[in-house]
Amino acid sequence: MARHIYSCPLRWSDMDAFGHVNNVVFLRYLEEARIDFMFRLAPGEGSESFTGGSVVARHEIDYVRPLVHRHEPVRIESWVTKIGAASLTIAYEIKDPEQVYVRASTVVVPFNLAEGRPRRITAEEKSFLREYLDDDAPQGDRPRGGKTEAVAA
Q1: N or C: which end of the chain has fewer CB within 10 A?
Q2: 32 alpha-carbon distance from chain centroid
Q3: Domains of the chain with bracketed CATH
């Protein structure tokens, strides 16, 4: 399974009165990593994949340890744990090589902004997402033939 890697800078304004990154700011970090994954890495020149909009249906966050301000960015690893007909689940770890600060997941629903309603995930999008699909994901979410091997850029 490939993981998308996002290097996220810490900002002084991310800190709260207790001197660590505020819990709400972690949602912004996850959003930055998710947008970088879904839009910047969308497949193909001129592809319409992931450009029509999406909405967050659910977030789950486990705060493992405090993160304090420093000049080095934090690493956010993202991967896909579920691909449905009209939703996908992205998992994350916000970490340094020696420790994890946050483990999280987000359920994302592709959305047709013009029609004001959810839409199905296209074949092109599924193909892209499967490159990042967790090896432990249910078999129905994986292409026939077993595990997918891919290397993140």
Answers
A1: C
A2: 9
A3: 4-141 (3.10.129.10)
